[in-house]
Amino acid sequence: MSNAYVSIPDLRALLGDIAEESIVSRSLYNEANSRAILFGFAPGQELSEHTTPMAAIIHILEGNATLTLGTDEMQAQPGTLVYMPPSLSHSVYAHGQVVMLLTMIKERAK
Question: What distance in Å separates the CA atoms of residue 93 and residue 61, rounded to the nearest whole number?
Fold first, then answer.
């Protein structure tokens, strides 16, 4: 094979059972310019407010969550996709069990 690629036929299976009061994460790939991390949240769990120097995309795959993006708050359900520019303050709160794919993209040097 001349070009390497990553193929995962069942993202959800990578997390297995999500224990009560826990957040599970699995790194799917980590390269110089991009990263993908799969998160599983038990009900009531949250990632507290933080920032990242990379642009990021949140894709909710399962469950319902509240996303805080800067000063905005929005409800997210399966299928919700949000692009966040670098340094945007954000947090995630899981109302029930939530599975989320986070993709981070480093901007190329100009």
Answer: 14
pTM > 0.85: yes
- State the DSSP H helix or E strand holding residue 102, giving kind and residue range, or none if neither: strand 98-105
Does residue 81 or residue 31 have the better pLDDT? Answer: 81
> Are 69 and 90 spatial neighbours (Cβ–Cβ below 8 Å)?
yes
Domain boundaries, the chain: 19-105
Q: How far apart are CA 30 and CA 37, in angstroms?
A: 9
The CATH number corresponding to 19-105 among 2.40.50.100, 2.30.110.10, 2.60.120.10, 3.60.20.10 equals 2.60.120.10
How does residue 110 score in pLDDT terms, banded at 50, 70 and 90? Answer: low
Do 38 and 23 contact (CB within 8 A), yes or no?
A: no
